[in-house]
């Protein structure tokens, strides 16, 4: 499963305070009230009073930072009343964090690594070389910072009726969702047989080492297996078969780097295992290949569901018009921004600056942008 | 004043000027960061605090001194919201942040002018066709004769009064700008389109009136007259101030007016040149610049409308140096001097043009 940032859909809140907040927000959104008191101005004022106060935006404050390994930290977050994950979150789900890095809003998805239902929730982040967000989280974030957060999402979750035998298989920072699952199993007093197999380079990189030990000590049905690539060699299907001989009978939950996940999936198919294999992968937004100027590319319009193929070198506005569409436009020379829209994905070139950009969900002006890969626009 | 004379610059020079201005733009746009967002958030914080404080003083204050303080605080909030926040955010100066609260296409401000209509009349019409007679409807706001190239009509005898009324109700002038009343009267706009525009304008104005002249006074109970008068004065101060600043941006002595036929097939360099010669600046300190929404740097604003406005101060010397290099007029001066030339122009063009005497 490939995950990209999705817009959160409004869900009824589970707390009274959350419901009251939403009712107040709805009042301010009434056309007449909105014409008199702007909700945005109310939000500004609330934010001035306290950064956690909001009528519309779930936010969370960093209350504790735990150093897991040399390059991994867990951030314990206390959400405001609009976050309903305390009641709804399931082990294995993720949340979207919205951070402001050097003035720009950046969104990333992180698995919840804590047990669902607690007052606070946690995410665990490994510092990635060259990673903008993970670097920021490690170097800049301190206790007391407040972030906008999304509601829990994702279908990589344990079923309500648990199978008799389970394998939780993870590698690297893929341990975070399965760790939440393990804690959940423990909390639900899962009587079945569960193997927790984690792969990393060496013992120093084992995230949650102490926590795993503690759980294993209290939980006789659990066997924890670790595989260190530096010591035992590269992990693959053979090593899996050796470590978990009855793997064919186990419902498996897998999260890790894509190379490993592909290998395990192939193994599952090759061996024709019937036990289900559930997996989740997080992909950073792909740096799409940029085709030469003028190459025909596909333009998808996400809101209207139409699409067309570009011809020649003209900017996207002209391309859309040639395809029989009539997007909102104004000056046609990049000044007025009437034609500005959100580009969901794809690479475009700004004709005025010559700049290529592939960032997801960025605002582009159709009249001065040419598509340099397939693009999806929120039109 | 007649139309701009053809420039003394060669095609190559205009192109080079364009590239040099692009380089100035890039030098700022490549360094946008936290400091820029922090500036805008600080302005929003000051504005909201000023509004809450001002309204509280009007509602709960006793005596004339707290009334005056309340009016000034509220006028300050309305001015900041209009100029440094609304105008700049709606130009897209903060779209790069990705913050929905600073999004140019959804931002709405505390003024009689509907945001969507302003985005059209200002961002599209005025900024694209700056000072082109017949296309830039900001030239005299369809009401005043600011150049000899506009036809004189008997109603222009009343121009000084019309000017005063426009200044006092400036937000309604700006708000009704996109209705294109003149065009509608000539049948160029279909009735349903006009009605829709009119409804939008009236609805926004009604809401503003309801808030300032009915709801808030009513909430103040026995202080209702105090609140009503206070709100009226705060709106009036904001109107007068924005009027002065905006008139000083384009109607001063020495700004160029263009003919439509001279501006066809403009290159980027030509466009820059027209923005440079069609705008005028005001000198002043940091607070003054902020209170004008940095439209005291109208020249830089017209060159780079989507650059965060507080950065104009740092590039102004470079733009001025470019003007010196190319022998172009960098139109700047104090508020008094610049507004003086505006008034002079308004009064000059109040009078009908002297009949052309045929050669003797």
TrEMBL record, chain A:
One of its GO terms (molecular function) is metal ion binding. InterPro entries: 2Fe-2S_ferredoxin-like_sf (IPR036010), 2Fe-2S_ferredoxin-type (IPR001041), Beta-grasp_dom_sf (IPR012675), Cbr1-like_FAD-bd_dom (IPR008333), FAD-bd_FR_type (IPR017927), FNR_nucleotide-bd (IPR039261), MRET (IPR050415), OxRdtase_FAD/NAD-bd (IPR001433). The keyword Iron applies. SUPFAM superfamilies: 2Fe-2S ferredoxin-like (SSF54292), Ferredoxin reductase-like, C-terminal NADP-linked domain (SSF52343), Riboflavin synthase domain-like (SSF63380). Signal peptide: none annotated. PROSITE patterns: FAD_FR. Keywords: 2Fe-2S, FAD, Flavoprotein, Iron, Iron-sulfur, Metal-binding, Oxidoreductase. Residues 55-159 form the FAD-binding FR-type domain. The keyword Oxidoreductase applies. Its cofactor is FAD. Gene3D superfamilies: 3.10.20.30, Nucleotide-binding domain of ferredoxin-NADP reductase (FNR) module (3.40.50.80), Translation factors (2.40.30.10). In the N-terminal section; belongs to the FAD-binding oxidoreductase type 6 family. PANTHER family: NADH OXIDOREDUCTASE HCR. This is Ferredoxin reductase.
